[in-house]
Amino acid sequence: MNKPVKFIAGWVVLVFFLSGCAVSNSVRPAAIPARAENVKNVILIICDGMGPQEVGFLLSYARQAPRSVLRDRTTVFDALLNNGGKLGLSMTYPGTGLVVDSAASATQLATGRFAGSEMIGMDQDGNVVENIIEKAKKIGKATGLVSDTRLTHATPAGFAAHQDNRDNENEIAEDMLKLGPDVMLSGGLRHFIPKEVGDPDSTAAREVRELTGGSGRFSSARKDSRNLLKEAAKKGYMLAFSKAQLDRASSSRLFGLFAESAMPYAIDAEGSLADPGRQIPTLGEMAAKSLDILSRNEKGFVLMLEAGLLDWMLHDNDAGGALHELVMFNDVAGFILDWAGKRKDTLVVITGDHETGGFGLSYSAFDLPMGRRLPGAGFEGKEFKPLLNYGKPETLDRIYGQKNSYEALFKLRFDALPKEGQTPEALAGMVNAVSEFKITVAGASSILEKDVNPFYVQGHKYLGQPEVPRIRDFASFYVYQSDNRKNLLGRELAKEQSVVWSTGTHTATPVLVFSTGPGSGEFQGILHHTQIAQKLIRFLRD
User: What pLDDT sits at residue 33?
Assistant: First the structure.
């Protein structure tokens, strides 16, 4: 693999300095937190894929981009730490490997037990393990799950289901409804509606239209005729499928699904945010509604909120899309911290489940700087002319200036062309219309080039295509092969963006842990995600 980005070490040193901790060679059970009588509510915010590099990306944009959209050039992380919040570091590895996937990571954050790769709600030996949502329900607290991916996707699933593999999303949907958190808001409608909805004249399709208020055609991923929306209504949930329905919801039990699969990426949704008829709520709007409902419980609540689409952008090596997700996450986390800051009974923990992409801003040999005069006496008669390109702050504005995700560019625009129109010239024109960094027709040709799949496995979910986009280096780390055109585009633009990517999957880089409120001191130092869960769960017993 590529050499690790050098500034990661700087983050580790920073955490050591701030926390004054020592490294342990093994993970021990978390010490029982000092009693925190005021911990009534627990909010765990997971920004999927957010490692130190991504936090650094947001901080660099806030401080250095000439046209940064962040007010006062500060982030939610500045606000948290400047107001007494705490900083820690957490290892993420699973019980069965070096690098974690989102399912095992979520399970570890939810249960405090090591999990195996791709498992949901089970320990590394395959035993079903009770999670923090189940424990909170037992003692009468309200509970909530909010995500901008799918409700059945790996992270929310780890807090509400027990399955041997994350791909069992239909069964995960059933587990979630059986558990019954008070608030569930996300995408993923396709896993809750019967298979027959594909026929618009069927009884199933009519029932789903009546329940959702929709008039279009629906698609289902289920293999049976169960209508889990009807079952949710019978269990006393108010149902919501649009922003208007979410706004009107007043029930203490709310079940909302706002997309058939994942909700829109921030970069693709921004143009519609001011539309008064907008149908899909934002993650921030779902967060606000969940806090309004959950805080009515006199015994308090536990909320897991996931900003999950950063991970998807990083898998695509889409720097512009990732930056928009980080800015959106900054706003949502800031809103939650403002809400919690008005109380003295709410613990907030913010972390990533892992790092994705091996992302970094880096200097290079591309576009070497011209010499220029400096006013200082030390350069009198000389030019300032660094030997390498260390990047320009305005590059950050240009990255943020991207208008669409790579996903939308390919799937909604390029792939919508007739086959004879899917040419390098067409792709170059589309990219150059939405990005401030341009590609040539030759560059577009390399993105569209295909080759024999060197990792072909017949019937494999990701590796089952005999011919795939041609990755010229580190191909074994680009496993989502049908989407590799996006990675190739990211790499084509990378040198102009001063960006490097080391993978299309996850890394084992430790993630940062930010915490505030009563009990936040317990989340300093070097931890493992299982220890974060153990501490959160033990606060429920105080």
Answer: 54
Fold of the 392-500 domain: 1.10.1200
Exposure class string for 399-410: b at 16+ Cβ within 10 A, else e: bbebbbbbbbbb
Exposed (0-12), middle (13-18) or buried (19+): which is 486, by Cβ within 10 Å? buried
- Correct CATH for 38-47+82-192+227-322+338-359+506-539 of 3.40.50.2000, 3.40.50.920, 3.40.710.10, 3.40.720.10: 3.40.720.10
**pTM of the predicted model as reported, rounded to 2 decimal places:** 0.93
Residue 482 has what pLDDT? 87
CB 505 within 8 A of CB 355: no
Alpha-carbon span 227 to 197, nearest angstrom: 10
Query: How many helices (DSSP H) and strands (DSSP E) are in the chain?
Result: 20, 16
Q: Output the pLDDT for position 217.
A: 82
Which pLDDT belongs to residue 216?
A: 75
Q: Are 131 and 121 in contact (CB under 8 A)?
A: yes
* Least confident among 28-42, 384-398, 442-456, 510-524: 28-42
Q: Is 159 exposed, middle or buried (0-12, 13-18, 19+ CB in 10 A)?
A: buried
| DSSP E strand boundaries for 295-435 | 301-307, 346-351, 355-356, 360-361
